[in-house]
Every structure is written in C-alpha cells, then in structure tokens.
Amino acid sequence: MRVHTILASAFLLLASWPSSTHSASGRRRNTLWRGDSIAVEDASGDVLVSPGGNFSCGFYKVATNAYTFAIWFARSADATVAWTANRDAPVNGHGSRAGFRKDASLVLQDLDGRVVWSTNTSGTQADRAQLLDTGNLVVADAAGRVLWQSFDWPTDTLLPEQPITRYKRLVSASARGLLYSGYYNLYFDSNNILNLMYDGPEISSNYWPDPFKQWWENDRTAYNNSRYGSLDRHGAFSASDQTQFNSSDMGEGVTRRLTLDYDGNLRLYSLDGGDGRWLVTWAALPRACDVHGVCGRYGVCAYLPALACSCPEGFVASDAGDWSKGCRREFDLRCGEPVYFAEMPSVDYWGFDFNYTRRLTMETCRQICLDDCNCEAFGYKMGTGECYPKISLWNGGAPNINQNIFLKVPTRVKNLSPAVLDFHGHACTVHEQNASVVSASSYFHVRGNKINFVYFYSFLAVAFVVEAIFIVVGYLFVFRADPAAGRVGDEEGYALLFSQFRRFAYDELSDATGKFADKVGWGASGTVYKGVLDDGRSIAVKRLDDLTQADEVFRSEMSMIGRINHMNLVRVWGYCSEHSHRILVSEFVEKGSLDKALFGGDGALLGWHSRYRIAVGVAKGLAYLHHECLEWIVHCDVKPENILLDAELEPKITDFGLVKLLSRDACGRLVLSRAQGTRGYIAPEWATSLPITGKADVYSFGIVLLELIRGQRVCDWVVDGRGGDDDVVVWLRENKRMMNLDLDDESSSWMEDKFVDPRLRSDFSHLQAAAMLELAVSCVDDDPNRRPSMNVVLEKLLSLEDDTPARYA
C-alpha cells in the first residue's frame, strides 16, 4: 500500500470525524429555506440531516484548510461520502458558505465570494433545499415538485433507487481516502452496454464485461437503448442491458452503496450497524489484475497471491509510490539501430496489436516487429503460431499459458545491471540478430521488495495447472458441443474477437438492404446503402465498387478497425469479403451528414450551442485518432460530408476509406504514397514534397471550423472583395494580427458582420466564436509545424464549452 495514500486516508478519517458526530449545540435540520446558509466555520455542527438520521449534508474536510460540500453516511465509522458537489475544487476553510439564495438557487461560494458550484434552479418557484431519507438532496417548490436533485449528478457512488443513465456515469476517486476524480468510469457505451473503462491520460480501454467476448457471450443485450440501471432496496441491481447482480445479504433494512472504488473495481457494500464498518457483498472483478491501468505503461500485474506490479528488464517504476504511472525505459529505442528481443515467458500485454496473424513461425513474427519502428514487442503463442506485434505495452499480466512476450531492446544495452535484468524471477532468454545472449538474475522486483523467485515459480506452476484444466474443459464442452463455434473462432481469430466484429455473408447484406436499393450516400471509395439486420439494428452498408481501389481501402480499414472505438467515430459492426465483394457494415447515424444540416435549408435550425458541440465532438474524435491511437492514424478527408450527426446532434466522424496505417521515415514522420482528400479541405503540403502528418487533418478541421461559424462553404465566401477558398484562407492569414486585436473587443461587430452566420440572428457566444475563429486561423497556417495539434485544439475548445448562454442553445 502506498505510504502517502495511507497517511492521506488516516488524515481524512481524523479530519472528517467531527462531521459525523455533531455536538448537541449544532444546528441539525433537514431543510434550507430561501435566505438560509451554512458556513464552513460551523462544519462540525451546522449540517443538514435526513429525517431518519442516516445521512448528513454540509461541509466535509478533505485537507488542512480545504472543504467540499458533500453528503455522507452519518452512521458509518469513517463518515463515508456518498456525493460531492465540488470534488475537484475544494473551498477555503474560512469564509466559504453554502446557501439557498432568494433567486431559488443553491450555491457554494468560496472565500472571495466566487460561486464554485450551483444548481440550475434560479428564477424557478423553488423554495427549499432538503435532504431526504434516501440520501438525495433535492431542490423543490412549495408543491413538492423536485426541480433539481443530487441523484441526477452521481460522483463515484450509487445509492438504492438512484439511477445510472445514458448521460450520467460514475467516476472513481483518485486514491484511497481522496475525493478527487480518478481515471475509472462506469457508463453506458454507444452499444447500450454498461461498461467499466480506464480513461487515463494516455489511453482509454474497457475491461468489464470481458472485452474478449461478444455482448451476448457476456449475457448482455445491445437492443435496449433506454440505458438505465439502479440498485433496489433489497440489494439487487438490474440494468437495461440485462446486467444483474445481488448483494450477498439480500433483504430490506440494510444500508447499502454501490461504489466505483479508486482501484477501478465496482463493489457493492453493506453497512454493519454494530460498528459502522462496510462489508463487501459483491464485486465486479474478483481478480484485481483484470482492471486496466492498474500497473500503468509497461507494468505487469501478477498475484503472489495478492496483487503485485513489476517492471520488465531495462525498465524502472516511474513513481515507486504510484504504480498507475507504470514504468519507464532506462534506454532509448532508435529506429534503424540493431536490436535484440528479450523473452518474457508466460506474459501478455492486453491489446494494441497490429497485423495479427495465425500460423506463423516465430522468426517471421519477429521479422514483422523488426521491420516496423513502431513495434515495441511481439507476443507469440507456441503451438498455434499466433503472432501479436505490439505498438504499445499496457495492461501486462502473468501468468499466461503458452504466451510469451519478446521485448525489443537495442543491442548497445546488453550489459544491464543484475538489479534490473530479471523479470518475475525468470531467466531472460534473448533472441538477437547475429548473436544469442542469455541473461539471468535471482531478483524479482515487487513494489521495491526482493523476494525469492522459487516461490513465484511454484505459484506459476499451480496457476498453469488450474488454467489448463479450464481450457480442456472449455474445449470439450463448448467447442466440441458446437463445431460451428470452433470454425468461427478459427476463421475470425483474435482480431475480430477483440474488436467485436462479425463477418457478414453477401446474401445477408443483400437481403438487409433490399438488394442494395436504399442508397443514402456515395463517395470516392464506394456507395452507402441503408439496411436493417434481422435483429432490428439499422445499418449503413458501404459497398466498395472499384475493385482495385476498394481492395486497398478495405485492407486499410480492416487493419484499423480493431483499435478504433470512440463516441465521436462511427462504429463499424463488421464486413463482407466474398469473391470480388468488399463491404463494410457500420452503425446507421440518424440525422445524416453535417453538410446537409449546415448548408441546406435547415441550417438555421442548427443553433450556436449545437455548432459548438459539433466542433468539440469532431475535435475529440480527431484527437483520439491522432494521439490515443498512438499518433499514426490520419483521416485524410475531414469535411462536413464525413461528419454525421446522431439524434442528439452529437457528431460522428465517418469514411475511414482514406485512412492509412502509415509507415514512418527516419524522422518519425508519416508518409503517404499519393494525394487524397477533397478540394477546399486539402492542406498545402499535399501539393509539395512535404510528408503528410496529422497536421493535414488539423488544416481540414480549421476549414470545418470556419464553415461552422459562417454556415457557408469557404469556397463560397467573399471577404473584402476576395472569394474562393484559397483567397479567403490567404486573407485570414494576412490579417491574423489585426483580427486578434478586434477579437479582444466583445462589443465589436466586425467579426459578426464578416464571419458569423446571419441566420443565427446574433444569437451566439462572442467569446466562443472568437476562439473558434482564432483557432481556425492557426489551423490553416501554410506551415504544418505552426499548426496546433488536435490535443491543443481540443483543450482550447473544452475550456470554453460551458460559456454558451442558455438562449444560444
């Protein structure tokens, strides 16, 4: 256990204890009326208390001089927090105040009077804020109608009868005893499935339910889009996707909570009324190593029998007190230099595979990794010849039967010190060009301690036997009972299982589309038809018509599909490859493409708030492609036609037919073989010998930003006598300095007259429009190096996302 975490937990327990044991002289009430308030100086006594006395609400101490406005379990020994208004923005321990204003809003003010948090009830008939026996803090009117409730804004905990819905999620705490937001989420994904996800600073990945299984194999359903789940008073949880589990102490009269803990596990707790301790009565993951991100990048998780993280040879912990930060290399890895591969027996790293292939020799698999500068290691399964080249190493686990990882290491770093040569106590067999090196060590590094590797070998042996029994039993009772299942597994392989694809027959897609009768779109790479599957799902079927080009596009998209999953990217359900037919099957997005909504007759219906949300969503999708997908995925054809809008006007980027898994030159830059894209959105470097990188997408996104502001294609603009996309862009660059001066003046009508869509009738946020215009100008710079990255663009847009006044929505 981390030392700082223990200290923080102990300090928090001592600091918050007075909040749950109020003096007799303290004000104990369950309602705030208009004009009432609670001062932080009275945190130990002035609180709201539910009628039954189970919950308290008020200021909760989280540090020496820092408080949150929270609801906690009054009868628990450690005053466990159930909800927090300002978990990531504590207020000062002097002068802060929570009050129910006369304008009917409940607000939290810091020492300087700044409003840190508030409800959205100002101007309503609300006359009270009340803490109920359910633990729900509500703002209601005189008739009892609830106008706002804390149940709609969960943090890391669900109480009985509190729902989790399509738009709400649980977010874990950052560490034991700390209330700040962490990296783990419980949410409904776009497939209507309730998921646990690690959403870290570098990667995002789902880990519950089992990501290697289809949703029906996990006993879930994807057909119910109500996306609703809740825990009842008997201790039973049920959700719209058929997620179901029960507390081990089922029955009424028990205080319970469902919490996404700081360690990424979802647990159901029951309160022991005798001593106020919490007892775990259900957990989503019995094996802690199944939680993603637990040991960080390069780290490997194992059971000895408790969870232990370690680093492979040549790596050290980035932060010995926080294993979620993973490991870092003690050497750099340069493209083109001589390397060898150090074997890590019985280890696997989850995901991030490319060019997955079956029935290869180890030498061929090794060569695939050797030929790609982005490959950090490869996994290989003896017997089946399964090859998994890895472009990143995350979520390492051991033991793994018949699976070995071969880590790429420069030849110049052969002579590592014994203290870092060992991994899990294994001898380290090295495979190298023109050499064979064998290294060994008797140390096993687990959180800074040395242990005898003999015990670890014994543990591995027992684990191997147990897992072998499961595999044999599974084969006998599953695959032999259903020969078709075995054939599908052989045919689709690991890649399709990982990405949840399925292979469609051509006749099935022909029937689903009425023999390809309902055409909804077309482009350079093929024609799109609408269809309906037998299970009722609406689909978009993209038929790649040109055999030569289509085959190339198809292979490109197929190699990408297993690693793409983001709410702002169209989800691809599967494919068809029969004879000359090359077809992609995707989700059908209801509202069609952005160009129709923005440039068509209904453009006026696309209000400012929707336009800004679309800009943010497209930026999120591109940032995911450029950065979370390991900075090598370039769309190459970003334009309104390739941005679809769902029923809530949430954008989804489509048409990955032009995406390439690009090779890199010696400088790590992306190189394309030929120009692609659409005139008006193509970056200048397409016409030069400059390499094409993600900055080409940034340029295209800048054009889309301009069109979202103006509601008109840039090629149709006329600015100071200049018209056409090239002239307008040049004018913007030339006048960038002058524009920046005017953008600072919110009273200036210059921007509105020249750039803002007149159909908005002045209903727009000047601050957001100015930021979008400034961003767009920087994105369309003719020098790719001066353009911002998509991460920078996204951060800027997100910083102003909440600035939209209600009337602009």
Automatic annotation (TrEMBL):
Its main location: membrane. Keywords: ATP-binding, Disulfide bond, EGF-like domain, Glycoprotein, Kinase, Membrane, Nucleotide-binding, Receptor, Serine/threonine-protein kinase, Signal, Transferase, Transmembrane, Transmembrane helix. It is a single-pass type I membrane protein. ATP binds at K542. It is found in: Membrane. Residues 23-152 form the Bulb-type lectin domain. The chain crosses the membrane at residues 454-478. Its EC number is 2.7.11.1. One of its GO terms (molecular function) is protein serine/threonine kinase activity. SUPFAM superfamilies: alpha-D-mannose-specific plant lectins (SSF51110), Protein kinase-like (PK-like) (SSF56112). Residues 1-23 form the signal peptide. Belongs to the protein kinase superfamily. Ser/Thr protein kinase family. This is Receptor-like serine/threonine-protein kinase. It comes from Panicum virgatum (Blackwell switchgrass). The lineage of its organism: Eukaryota, Viridiplantae, Streptophyta, Embryophyta, Tracheophyta.
